[in-house]
Amino acid sequence: MTNAKTHPHFSRKLLAIPYGLFLAVFVVIPLLIIVYYAFTNDEGKFTFEYVRVFFNENGEGFFAFFKSYNFKTIMQSLFISIMSTLICLLIAYPVAYIIAKCNLKNKSVLLLLFIVPMWVNFVLRINALKELFVWLGTYNKSNAWNIVNTIIGMVYDFLPFMILPIYTTIIKIDKSYLEAAKDLGATPAKAFVQVTLPLSKAGIMSGVSMVFLPSMTNYVVSNYLTFRNIKIIGKLIDDYFTGDLWHDGSFIALVLLLFMFLFTWLTGGFSADEQTETRGTSLW
Fold first, then answer.
1. What is the C-alpha to C-alpha distance for residues 87 and 234, in angstroms, rounded to an integer?
2. What are the φ/ψ torsions at residue 58 (nearest 5 degrees)?
């Protein structure tokens, strides 16, 4: 009788263990802590007090919330995020399209023109932009200029995050789709609208998510470029935490998380790739 040597079987599922531990330690546990603080008081007892405070800050009823400081901050954050995202998209899509369709052998050189500035320290870049606004005379002049400066700062900071996913999606589009559209008599403009644009939807949605969501929380930009006169929801949360108001800050953090979830769901972020593949296979 021969003794067969047994070899340990390595399962690829084991590779998921470090990732699972990372999610548990840096995502799940912090989220549970935020939920705990949002719905408990200083004595650790369950309460909806901070929900009431958020929606009825001045004790004047629910509808007074729409006149409250929290509501104005959220609306201001949404406006800045929406405008920053739209401007980034209007700039990034033509740039990504031109780079993807150009005849250069080494297209990465063009991409580097937009990525290299990201290698410079973030604070240095924002300070340089602030000095530019000071030189132009728009720094801390009025609330309108402060909002404009904040939007420009967001676009300047997040533009590469819009260009890269769109470029990656466009460059992967099968050329046979465009050739088929041309054979069927479609003009270049019609082929772009009916073929390229729908097939690049996944890149657009990814870029929009990568710009819109951080724009609501990156208060460093608004602080530096407006002398702290423009406050977005990220700064509101920071003020509560630094003021040792953990319960209020935790509930507003949950509100922001809800915004992010709804935005990702409404824009199809959870299934963008699947929708794009389906669209690509059923065009013709």
1. 21
2. -100, 5
